[in-house]
From TrEMBL:
Top-rank lineage group of the source organism: Bacteria
Organism listed in the record: Paramagnetospirillum magneticum (strain ATCC 700264 / AMB-1)
This protein's UniProt keywords: Signal
Signal peptide location: 1-25
SUPFAM superfamilies, A to Z: Periplasmic binding protein-like II
The protein, known as: Uncharacterized protein
Amino acid sequence: MGRFLNATASLLAAVWLASPLPGQAESALRFSTGMIEPWTNGAGTGFHQLLIRDVLAKLGKTAELEVIPASSRAIKLADDGTIDGLTGRVAGLEKEYPNLIAVPERMFVNDFVACTSPGGKLPANWAETRPLSVAYVIGWQIFEHNLPPVRELTTVKDSAQLLSLLNAGRAELILHERWQILWLARQMNVPLTCAEPPLAKVPMFIYLNRRHADLAPAMAEALRRMKADGSYETIARKVFGGLGSSVTEMK
């Protein structure tokens, strides 16, 4: 397990994950995300990296993408203009951060799922979790706000601990974001089954600092074209296709 945690730490320590083309550094737009493998990776082939690169390429621009785990810090850096924007953020940030402009087309839909070992009981909705022993990573507000009282609740510090808890039989059900937990389960060789449909589906957006407000409509149109012509799903299948079958619902 330590090898996988070290790999994650190395990813978070990397400064720029998606580099501009040679000679174009000055024109590159700088974005941040808080999402790690498989949404981003050290090779620059994660979903965020490929998608933001292709969207901006359609506008004749390049992008740099930094992983900043601390959400509040990342948002403030975009709001004060230190970086140019954010990827993979929930709707409504502009209400609290007036210098942020949302691109008016969702980047993807984030699935929050219940998972168990193969053969275990999977809930069809939040209410069906009540008789089960459940675990999730502490601080995930979507679970803190929506999970009803359950038979037994455990919170852990990170996703690897969550999978270890399930694998050891110390929890019947774990809650997480779909693609990160499926990727990590494969790396840790932990058999995992996730419920369909997910417990929650949350649209996620790209944000720009308001000095780039003129780019927002063009980026939205580029995203819509990619969804219509199949190139969006091609990226999703390239990144997530080996993990599951729900990539068609991402857009």
